[in-house]
Amino acid sequence: GLAAAVLSFNRYSQLVACVMRRLYGCPCAAYFDDYDITDQVAAGKSGKDALHYIHGLFGISLSGGDKDVPPAPANPFLGVISDLSRVVEGVAVMRSKPSRVAGIILAIEDMLSAGAAPAAAFDRLVGKLEYTTSTGAAVRFGRAALAVLREFAGNSRGGGNAPFTPEVVLALRFFVFILPLVRPRVFRLWRRVRPPVIVYTDARYSPGEPEPAQLGI
């Protein structure tokens, strides 16, 4: 019953986005219960007005308050800030919300202090890390560390507070260090992109060594 209700709800938001695009010519997308409208400056808030109007016709009103974000050159959507303030120069920027990154780091530090975490909370943390490292970042990173965390999450499905292994502690510390340094994604919309910089790397891991891991570039 619950699964069917969720699927029906998602189909409704997809229907509304479809109506927005086909009847109003408005660039609208939906992800579960979140809508995104990316329109020209000249359109003002007409897209949002149309979205509210359609929901009113269907008898399901939209949330207001801080969930109803006014149009702006840079706005967050699903934890990622899309900055189109330089789009006339052919540049668009996407970056993770600073508050989201800070929340992830705080959660990691709390878990490290405890040396363990409930299985459900740890699983949510890994999901947030996977999403953050593949959306608002210049490149996808930390896949080796994520593999360690995902394996640990899979082995602790019992729901208890399984103590962290040394590998899990190192992986968590890696993200505490690297997340504040991550560069945003920059898209060049119509300018020629310069040739890529190719970096050759190699790594080793020897658990018994005083310095178990090394990276060569």
Compact overview of the structure:
This protein has 217 residues and is α+β, with helices and mostly antiparallel strands. It is 43% helix and 18% strand.
Structural commentary:
The structure is a single chain. With 217 residues, the chain is an alpha+beta fold. It is 43% helix and 18% strand. It has a four-stranded antiparallel sheet with strand order 3-4-5-8. A two-stranded antiparallel sheet has the order 1-2. Strands 6-7 form a two-stranded antiparallel sheet. β1 and β2 form a beta hairpin. α3 runs antiparallel to α4. The longest helix has 23 residues. The N and C termini lie far apart (54 Å).
Q: What oligomeric arrangement do these chains adopt?
A: single chain
State mean pLDDT (0 to 100 scale): 87
Report the principal-axis shape.
globular
- Determine the number of helices (DSSP H or I, runs of at least 4 residues): 6
Structural classification: alpha+beta
- Kindly state the percentage of residues in helix: 40-55%
pLDDT under 50 segments (min length 5)? Answer: none
**Beta-strand level of the residues, as a percent range?**
15-25%
Radius of gyration: 22 Å
Total strand segments = 10
Kindly, what is the distance between the CA atoms of the first and last residues, rounded to a whole number of angstroms? 54 Å
Largest sheet: 4 strands, antiparallel
Order of helices and strands: HEEHEEEHEHHEHEEE
- Strand order across the largest sheet: 3-4-5-8
